[in-house]
């Protein structure tokens, strides 16, 4: 028993089972996924109807999944840290009454009443652990469900991007084709300007009228046309070439505007689709990390529940040093849970929920004030 007492200082029976590391991993994954969620929810509408008719539906699904994370799963992830803080608080509230009982047991190892009350306190803490275990199991299921929906989003956006890349990117894609069209339009417009300049010069040299600041209209093939070059309205028989160039220049200007606008929109939509796909693919791994971290927390609570069962078995041995053993275990466990609880409080800076100090009896009855209730039992 003495050896067990000495070992309790560094290895308590009811320890936190690496929950600190699991809480770190869980919080990290949750923060990264939360950033993903923010990106999905704030991303402007994606629209490439001629190429990706299903893209709006895929985006809508991704937004639904992101909203589910934000409104349901993220609070559950936060609650895993809240549960650690809560249990740390609970253990602290039970510590003094349990130590007082352990002192009584040390004084009289056959004190059945003190042993039974001590066992009741341990059972109440064990019941709390069972509650945390159930809650964490729900978190594991929720995160696992999100992982499934994220995988669906990843498949959808990967398919969308592959299609968009084939249709838009590369030397034969629509964006490149529009670039070539814009170059051709610019070349045609340059020729039109040459025609305009040549025709205008001919009109001036021929002594024809140039109306400054006036709008002169010339009938050409039944169409009323005005030629304005550098703020000058050119009128005269020699202006035919300039007018022809001006008419084509206006058409090319309109075509250029349309081509540039179309290319810009396609580039923006292509880039946005590529960006969303990249984010979703990268975040698939984070969802796996979140599932693994939540699973580690669940395993920690499950192990802790078994630890309490083993700890209770020591109460069946009425040895002379039983009280000292219990005190050593309680001291080591309190130090451990104080440390883990303080660490979890820091993690709550990434989000917080109300921390509960509730407890239950071994029969599952909620104790409204566990500290006062159990303290009265311990002092009886």
Automatic annotation (TrEMBL):
Cross-referenced InterPro entries: Enterotoxin_cmpnt (IPR052785), HBL (IPR008414)
GO cellular component: membrane
Superkingdom, natural source: Bacteria
Transmembrane segments: 193-216, 222-247
Keyword field: Membrane, Transmembrane, Transmembrane helix
Name of this chain's protein: HBL/NHE enterotoxin family protein
Species this protein is from: Enterobacter cloacae
Taxonomic lineage from the root: Bacteria, Pseudomonadati, Pseudomonadota, Gammaproteobacteria, Enterobacterales
């Amino acid at each position: 028993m003495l050896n067990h007492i000495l070992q309790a200082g560094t290895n308590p029976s009811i320890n936190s089972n690496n929950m600190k590391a699991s809480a770190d991993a869980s919080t990290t994954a949750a923060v990264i996924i939360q950033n993903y969620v923010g990106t999905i929810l704030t991303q402007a509408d994606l629209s490439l109807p001629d190429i990706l008719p299903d893209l709006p539906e895929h985006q809508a699904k991704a937004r639904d999944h992101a909203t589910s994370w934000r409104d349901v799963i993220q609070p559950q992830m936060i609650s895993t840290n809240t549960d650690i803080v809560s249990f740390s608080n609970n253990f602290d509230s039970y510590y003094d009454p349990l130590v007082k009982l352990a002192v009584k047991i040390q004084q009289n190892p056959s004190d059945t009443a003190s042993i039974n009350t001590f066992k009741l306190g341990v059972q109440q803490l064990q019941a709390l652990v069972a509650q945390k275990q159930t809650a964490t199991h729900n978190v594991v299921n929720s995160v696992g469900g999100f992982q499934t929906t994220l995988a669906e989003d990843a498949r959808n956006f990967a398919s969308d991007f592959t299609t968009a890349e084939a249709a838009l990117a590369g030397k034969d894609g629509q964006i490149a084709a529009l670039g070539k069209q814009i170059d051709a339009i610019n070349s045609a417009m340059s020729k039109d300007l040459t025609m305009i300049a040549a025709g205008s010069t001919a009109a001036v040299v021929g002594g024809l009228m140039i109306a400054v600041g006036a709008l002169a209209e010339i009938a050409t093939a039944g169409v009323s046309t005005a030629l304005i070059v550098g703020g000058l309205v050119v009128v005269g028989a020699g202006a035919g070439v300039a007018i022809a160039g001006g008419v084509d220049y206006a058409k090319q200007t309109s075509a250029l505007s349309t081509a540039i606008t179309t290319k810009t929109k396609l580039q923006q939509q292509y880039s946005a689709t590529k960006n969303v796909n990249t984010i979703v693919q990268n975040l698939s791994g984070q969802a796996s990390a979140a599932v693994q971290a939540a699973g580690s927390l669940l395993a920690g609570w499950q192990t802790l529940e078994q630890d309490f069962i083993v700890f209770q078995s020591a109460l069946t041995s009425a040895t002379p040093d039983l009280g000292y053993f219990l005190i050593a275990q309680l001291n080591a466990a309190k130090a451990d849970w104080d440390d883990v609880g303080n660490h979890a409080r820091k993690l709550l800076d990434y989000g917080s929920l109300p921390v509960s100090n509730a407890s239950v009896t071994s029969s599952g009855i909620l104790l409204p004030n566990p500290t006062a209730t159990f303290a009265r039992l311990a002092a009886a």
